[in-house]
């Protein structure tokens, strides 16, 4: 690939200026010595179709999508891969050589990459997993665990109907548990994942009895503001291996770069520390 090429990508959302993605992708461009930019693109919901169709004439290689565009894009792009179709959301759009729009979902890859890096002792056959939530993040997490062959995946959500719909969309294989029984299904879990926004800055805390979780288990969160939620802090204090949500954001980046620029950047310690400082300073 020519070094003279201007590498252009971005993230579309509404709002979007809070996104940490430009810092991450900018780091990689500087590290790899590439001319380019990764831009935050504030696109209102009724402007998504026009914005995506404008990518080609503007010279973009592609974009990431964040709230509220991940579901709407399914009806706009020219091709949706089977993974995004099952998860029910597109997190990454790439421009094909013919100018068509290809949509996929890298959030599940981000979750797995984060888990492997920060909990290397975990393996799919370790035991049951408990996933709290049934929104977009939970769909990506459950897809990842199904893909890895986890023997039992218990989903706990306030709305059982929404959890049942997620199970149908993912092709089955999930065990739906009533919200009132959330503490009772923790004791033999090898992995517990908070896949909700509970615990995020400005949101209520996740109300769960963390003492029920075995100290040999792994606990993960998809929230990264704060870097460590109360849920994880309590468990870390008991000696449980905990995995924060920042790594999920970091690890969904390289697959996007492979699609856009035919390069695979590294999720390095330097990048992680840079992102952590930025989040801490702006909280």
Automatic annotation (TrEMBL):
Residues 11-93 form the Shikimate dehydrogenase substrate binding N-terminal domain. CDD domains: NAD_bind_Shikimate_DH. Residues 129-197 form the Quinate/shikimate 5-dehydrogenase/glutamyl-tRNA reductase domain. InterPro entries: Aminoacid_DH-like_N_sf, NAD(P)-bd_dom_sf, Shikimate_DH-bd_N, Shikimate_DH_fam, Shikm_DH/Glu-tRNA_Rdtase. One of its GO terms (molecular function) is shikimate 3-dehydrogenase (NADP+) activity. One of its GO terms (biological process) is shikimate metabolic process. HAMAP family: Shikimate_DH_AroE (MF_00222). This is Uncharacterized protein.
């Amino acid at each position: 690939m020519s070094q003279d090429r201007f590498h252009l990508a971005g993230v579309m959302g509404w709002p979007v200026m809070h996104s940490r993605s430009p810092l991450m992708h900018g780091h990689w461009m500087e590290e790899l010595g590439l001319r380019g930019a990764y831009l935050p693109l504030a696109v209102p919901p009724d402007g998504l179709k026009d914005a995506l169709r404008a990518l080609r004439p503007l010279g973009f290689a592609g974009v990431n999508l964040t709230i509220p565009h991940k579901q709407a894009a399914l009806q706009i792009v020219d091709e949706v891969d089977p993974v995004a179709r099952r998860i029910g959301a597109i997190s990454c759009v790439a421009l094909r050589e013919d100018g068509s729009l290809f949509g996929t979902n890298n959030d599940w890859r981000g979750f797995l990459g984060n888990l492997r890096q920060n909990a290397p002792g975990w393996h799919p056959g370790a035991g049951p997993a408990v996933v709290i939530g049934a929104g977009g993040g939970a769909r990506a997490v459950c897809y990842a665990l199904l893909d890895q062959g986890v023997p039992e995946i218990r989903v706990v959500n306030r709305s059982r109907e929404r959890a049942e719909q997620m199970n149908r969309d993912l092709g089955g294989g999930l065990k739906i548990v009533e919200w009132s029984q959330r503490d009772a299904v923790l004791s033999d879990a090898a992995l517990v994942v908070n896949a909700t926004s509970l615990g995020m800055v400005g949101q209520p805390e996740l109300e769960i009895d963390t003492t029920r979780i075995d100290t040999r288990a792994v606990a993960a969160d998809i929230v990264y503001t704060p870097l460590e939620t109360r849920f994880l802090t309590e468990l870390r204090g008991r000696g449980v291996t905990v995995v924060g949500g920042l790594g999920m954001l970091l690890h969904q980046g390289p697959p996007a770069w492979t699609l856009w620029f035919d390069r695979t950047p590294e999720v390095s310690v330097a990048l992680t520390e840079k992102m952590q400082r930025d989040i801490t300073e702006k909280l």
